[in-house]
Amino acid sequence: MSWPATNDELAAFGQELVANGAGVFTGSHVAFGDLQLTAQMPQIAEALRLLRDTHGFHQLVDIAGVDYPERARRFEVVYHLLSMTKNRRIRLKVETDEDTPVPSVTSVFPNADWYEREAFDMYGIFFEGHPDLRRILTDYGFHGHPLRKDFPMTGYVEVRYDEELKRVVYEPVKAVEWRNWDFLSPWEGMEKGYAPLPGDEKSSLPAPETK
After folding, report:
1. Spatial separation of the C-alpha atoms in residues 209 and 148, rounded to whole Å
2. Average pLDDT, stretch 14-33?
3. I need a labelling partner for 12 at 20 to 30 A (CA). Which of 33, 63, 114, 211 fits?
């Protein structure tokens, strides 16, 4: 196949991977100009190794989590691969639930270490065989996983500096009824009496005519 490929060529390549991948890949389609593959979760390391060694996708750009709480397997783990020589990206997806760990791929791509830790921290996705699976963005005692759809936007605790104790303290989130949730931007929500801000004059312009 010549690279960069057309969408039709990418679709054919994906079908070839599914047909000849010994059951590693379960499906493929082209989305947003890139090939997107799904794989058997227990064979994710094998799938990535095949794409790296056989097809030239030598760089793991990112690992992202996605939460679909209405599904039994609520999480998708998305691996973003890049081929510098082909100037192409591939996305590879697997599904899992809250209890089933995904095999770590640090043996295939060592930089997956921190990506997997982030997915664990933000979503609570476990990675079996990870050398040091612990939180990476939140505190070690943080409760919950902030990017889950059922995590409250206010969080469970708030942090402030206590002048008397001379240290940071954690407290349960207080009631927020006093806040004005008007869903306006900071500029639009400003009360009268403030000096005009750049761009305010646009609000008084007539709406453009439509033909």
Report:
1. 44
2. 92
3. 63
149-183: b (≥16 Cβ within 10 Å) or e: eebeeeeeeeeeeeeeeeeeeeeeeeeeeeeeeee
Residue among 66, 74, 76, 128 at smallest CA distance from 103: 128
Return the pLDDT at 104: 98
> Contact at 8 Å (CB) between 2 and 9?
yes
Q: Among 55, 56, 91, 60, which residue's Cα sits nearest to residue 76?
A: 91
What is the distance, to the nearest Å, from the Cα of residue 202 to the centroid of all Cα atoms in its chain?
36
Q: What are phi and psi of 10, to 5 degrees?
A: -65, -40
Per the CB < 8 A criterion, the answer to whether 137 and 152 are in contact is no
Dihedral sign of CA atoms 98, 108, 54, 10 in order: positive
Query: 47-61, 96-110, 113-127, 156-170 — which is least confidently predicted?
Result: 156-170
DSSP three-state, residue 181:
coil
Identity of the highest mean pLDDT range in 70-74, 137-141, 181-185: 70-74
By CB atoms closer than 10 A (0-12, 13-18, 19+), residue 57 is buried
Query: Is there a contact between 57 and 79 (Cβ–Cβ < 8 Å)?
Result: no
Q: Strand order of the sheet with strand 88-96?
A: 25-31, 34-39, 88-96, 75-83, 59-67
Averaged pLDDT score across all residues of the chain: 86
What is residue 135's predicted lDDT score, i.e. its pLDDT? 95
Cα–Cα distance for residue pair 155/164, rounded to 1 Å: 25
